[in-house]
Design goal:
The structure is a homodimer of 259-residue chains. By secondary structure, chain A is an alpha/beta fold. Chain A has one domain (3-257): Carbamate kinase (3-Layer(aba) Sandwich). The first copy, chain A, has eight helices and 14 strands. In chain A, strands 5-8-2-1-11-13-14-12 form an eight-stranded mixed beta sheet, with helices on both faces. A two-stranded antiparallel ribbon of chain A has the order 3-4. In chain A, helix 3 (44-51) crosses helix 4 and helix 6 packs parallel to helix 8 (222-233). The two termini of chain A are 20 Å apart. The interface between A and B is large, with 43 and 43 residues.
Chain lengths: 259, 259
Amino acid sequence: MKQKLSVVKIGGNLIEDPEGFEHVLDLFSKMDGNKILVHGGGNKTTEMSQKMGIEPKMINGRRITDADTLDIAIMIYGGLVSKKIVAQLQALGTDAIGMSGADANAIRAHKRPVIKVDFGLVGDVDSVNAYGIFKLLQAGFTPIFCALTHDGKGQLLNTNADTIAAEIAISMSDQFDTTLYYCFEKKGVLQDVEDENSVIHHIDSKGYDELLAYGIISDGMLPKMHNCFHALKNNVSRVCVGNSSMLEAGNPEYTTLTL
Amino acid sequence: MKQKLSVVKIGGNLIEDPEGFEHVLDLFSKMDGNKILVHGGGNKTTEMSQKMGIEPKMINGRRITDADTLDIAIMIYGGLVSKKIVAQLQALGTDAIGMSGADANAIRAHKRPVIKVDFGLVGDVDSVNAYGIFKLLQAGFTPIFCALTHDGKGQLLNTNADTIAAEIAISMSDQFDTTLYYCFEKKGVLQDVEDENSVIHHIDSKGYDELLAYGIISDGMLPKMHNCFHALKNNVSRVCVGNSSMLEAGNPEYTTLTL
């Protein structure tokens, strides 16, 4: 039987709220078995850009990662947020190591090709080094990933944290019975967007198609759900979507997705 | 027979010069056997503080690490410099992992006690987790340390990079035949400070006492030499002091220190 692995992605908004953040790290540290954390950087990058007088570059409403913006992402995601999470987790007894996709050659990517828009230093994932990550887990470490990848030629690249979490979970699923947790501000996928208590507890492929057909899934949830089913179709055992209390043993209020 | 380990400390000034920096990483990547890199952050922290409008706090000419200054050190040392070194080393075929003393619980420290001056969030090293670092080396990784430690209670602390290199080398010497390399801008310990070609090739304890007695060792070198002999007295096999070409096989122009 495969060993269990939990891949937990925590959203940027959680990082903004110090109390909520401590709580989620506490819950994460109490989870049994092999685990990996993936985090975004919150609004600190925007704040830092403003302090440094760097104007965010936008094309058609999409943010462009130029060299200065990437440096800020490396400082904030790869430095400040990562190291503070690690120090906090060590205090909670979890032997964490903060990593980018360059560390341990964990996540290779290529610069997104220019079709209509040049997004700049943004990476689309090519491969995850499952053996490298496995060696760290086997040695008793808990990898903490920020949303940075590298191209293997010395260039770091900005990459979406949801994507990184899904790709890590997929690559580890040969070796592990993997659960992917997406922590965000809502309790789960809601039947009624206005009603926080209308959590749908279980969605499978058939249910997903029905929800899509009836337009139940809101626009904001669509890419997240796409990531979830992409992971499930690539051997991830289950995906859980909800707020941080979903990491608490015995709490049933979140959405579990399976094929 | 013990396996060999090289602990290489590169100074901040090397990081300022992109060409020199690439060269030293290239030489480091070509070194055989187990190896660990320790780096400072150069003048980028001062530059960044100025950009962000944070005045450096000084008491009696000594820099004080307040919370804002520590955040900048974490961003620059722990983020920007660390991750760029790692990406570069990966491109050169070295399987690097960028770490602070919090990662893998590698270096515990306590806040320096206030005697006359409160240096702020500065850490004096208590212990190095040699087993944690050993596990990383054994798994084939090359740890890259920045000059940050933690107190085990969630607080990161600023710590001198020379001290970190010495303490890591000392702690690894039970297990390894360890050489500690201090790379800086000069070719080695000089007989005549004005003459770059007056490198003293070998200094032992007796020679060191003589150099001190004759006032040959300049003020700037004194703390570095103290670190060297502290390491040697604590089972580090040898300490080498010189510029980056000392890492090149076959180059004899540097100073080797032994007991």
